[in-house]
Amino acid sequence: MTVAPRDRTVAAAGLQLAAGWYVALRSNALTAKPQTLQLFGTHSVAWRDGSGCAVITQRRGRRPNPGPADSPPDAPRLRSYPVVERYGYVWAWYGGTEPAYPLPRVPALDGDRKRYLTYRFSHTTEASPRRILENAFDFYHFMFLHGVKSRIPMDMTLLPDQRAAAENGPPIADGAWFGAQLTARGLYIPQPFRTFGFRTERSDVLVDSWPTGQRLTFLLDGEVVAKELLGVTPVRAGRTIMRGWTLVARTGRPFRDVLTYLGYRAQHRQGTLQDLVIYRHAAESGPVVPVKYDHGVLKFRKFYTGWAEHAARAETGSG
Question: How far is the C-alpha of 176 from the C-alpha of 252, rounded, in Å?
Answer without folding.
Answer: 37
